[in-house]
Amino acid sequence: MKPSFSSKPFHQATMALSSLILLLGCTAAVVDAGLAARQSMLEKRGLNRLAKRQDLQQQPSFPNQRQFLNNKTQPYWVNGSALPEVYFDIGESYSGLLPIDESKELFFWFVPSTNPDAKDEITIWLNGGPGCSSIDGFFHENGPAIWQPGTYLPVPNTWAWSNLTNMVFIEQPVGTGFSQGTPNATNEEDVAAQFLPFWKNFIDLFELHDRKVYVTGESYAGMYCPYISAAMIEQNCTKYFDVAGMMIYDPSIQPQVSSEVAALPFVKAHYPDFPFNETFTAFLENRTQACGYNEYIENGLQFPPKGTFDNPPGVNYTNNYTLDDCQVFDPIFEAIFEINPCFDIYQVGQICPLLWDVLGFPYPATYFPVGFTQPYFNRTDVKQVIHAPENVNWQICTDKDVFVGDNGDTSPPSGIQGGPLQKVIEKTNNVIVGHGDLDMVLIANGTLLTLNNLTWNGQQGFSKPPIDPFYVPYGDDYVNGSIAGSGVMGGHVTERGLTFVAVVLSGHEVPEYQPSAAYRHLEVLLGRVGNLSEVSPFTTQRYVEQPKFEKGLGRGTWWPNVEERFTVQG
């Protein structure tokens, strides 16, 4: 018997299917029309911005010239269109070695700015480690060209700090990157003492005398920057060392507090990235409680603080050690790799596979995929363009000790009372401490704890949590490879010359993960913008209109349920 296709149920099903197809077709047409309208709107907005940008760049305030090229600087001049794999001209820059003394030299890369507001300033960038190269920052974060992990080629950096100020990236201390000589530093005083004569030679070479100096960096530069800045200030010489401000990201200012004490609360706040079982979680909770970390956090995150708080029983943060029975960070770090072998401590949430990176970073261990044998800056053709010594095996972070002796850097943490951080704040009244909320190397709450235990300009800590909204302007990401976010992207607090700002969706290297946020921070540091809540365009993109916030920006997005997280007095 042949099947019948004229049955009533089949007819009803066919009609229903036809209606569904018609409905989907209409819906698709509506969606297509909506997308077309949005695309048209974006294109119109883009063309309008392009016209305004071109009009702005035709003004004489953006000269295209070699400002610092002369007979003295010629040996250091970099042909900006000759860098291998870089398909564009990076602009005017200079690089090479300059002496500390007869036996030691530091490598630098200087990128002048065409911004007229930069005529009386110079900004230093230092990466951390200790022993990690600052040209990592040049190529991954805030230089004129960036080659991000997982991308095919470098692109022009919309958020290059040289758009705002004269930038110099310095590989230090001795033993880092291309820098020359045998390391002999035992502490940060030695590092600063070696940095200062190099800096004088740099200033003399490029005739940058009597300029404001801004010192910036990240990670272990939380030690470098305060100690170097304090040493500069002590020279009392504005011809070379007129320190006007300092900015440090995810800084090592008190590592025991920023890692051990804050570890378990960080894991709980990011539970989906740390799906530990109940047994291991209980172990962490018991150890955290027994070692006094919970009490330390409870006392430390009160605003304003009720008084100074001493070491938790499990750590000594003056001498930088943690008792074995009070280690929480290391067990977490070991356990998470059992669950997620591609875990990235620099920005939690990374899953397999690891992204290829031209410098082999940023992961807990250097990673090169099959067929990739050396980092970009170890190539001979690259070394030749930037005047680097060809016999050096360049590493993003050296496997050699840059501090001599069995104990490494013997200096106290920069963030203790009476330390260099306090001195720089009180001298400049212009210090920014920024922190990515996805960083586990050094955890944001730990840094805030350290600052809240510090007394500067006559008072201890902050009177309120970092709940003022941090506003990042809507910008013109005219290079697809360097797009970045905008809007309220965290919270901040500014009191008595010190700003703490927490940045959402950012890991350890804020200028890499949230470059537009770091760009705004720099504008505030340089005095181009009043504060981090100001709703105004980037100073280099004034043609980009900003939204109107009739009800204000709110309290920021980084500290939800602030009353539950902190004790706020008054």
> Looking across the biggest beta sheet, what order are the strands in?
1-2-6-3-7-8-12-17-16-15
Radius of gyration (CA) equals 26 Å
Would you identify the CATH architecture of the domain at 74-256 and 410-541?
3-Layer(aba) Sandwich
CATH domain fold name of the domain at 74-256 and 410-541: Rossmann fold
Distance between the termini: 87 Å
What is the CATH H-level superfamily of the domain at 74-256 and 410-541?
Answer: Alpha/Beta hydrolase fold, catalytic domain
Please give the number of β-strands. Answer: 18
Assign an overall shape.
Answer: globular
What do the pLDDT scores average to?
86
| Poorly predicted residue ranges | 1-35, 37-42, 49-63, 556-565
Q: How would you sum up the major sheet?
A: 10 strands, mixed
Q: Which strand-content bin applies to the residues?
A: 5-15%
Q: According to CATH, what is the class of the domain at 74-256 and 410-541?
A: Alpha Beta
Total of DSSP H or I helical runs spanning 4+ residues:
16
- Helix fraction bin: 25-40%
The secondary-structure class comes to alpha/beta
Protein name: Carboxypeptidase
Pfam families: Peptidase_S10
EC number: 3.4.16.-
GO molecular function, one term: serine-type carboxypeptidase activity
Verbal overview:
With 570 residues, the protein is of the alpha/beta class. The protein has a domain at 74-256 and 410-541: 3-Layer(aba) Sandwich (Rossmann fold), CATH 3.40.50.1820. 32% of the residues lie in helices and 14% in strands. It contains 16 helices and 18 strands. It has helices spanning 8-57, 135-142, 188-206, 221-235, 238-241, 255-261, 263-269, 278-290, 293-300, 329-339, 380-385, 420-428, 444-452, 510-513, 515-525, 562-565, and strands at residues 94-99, 105-111, 121-126, 145-146, 155-156, 167-171, 212-218, 242-249, 302-303, 315-316, 321-322, 431-436, 455-456, 459-460, 468-472, 487-495, 498-503, 567-568. A 10-stranded mixed beta sheet has the order 1-2-6-3-7-8-12-17-16-15, sandwiched between helices. A hairpin with a 4-residue loop joins strand 10 (315-316) and strand 11 (321-322). Helix 4 crosses helix 12 (420-428) and helix 6 crosses helix 13. The longest helix has 50 residues, at 8-57. The termini are far apart. Residues 1-35, 37-42, 49-63 and 556-565 have low confidence and may be disordered.
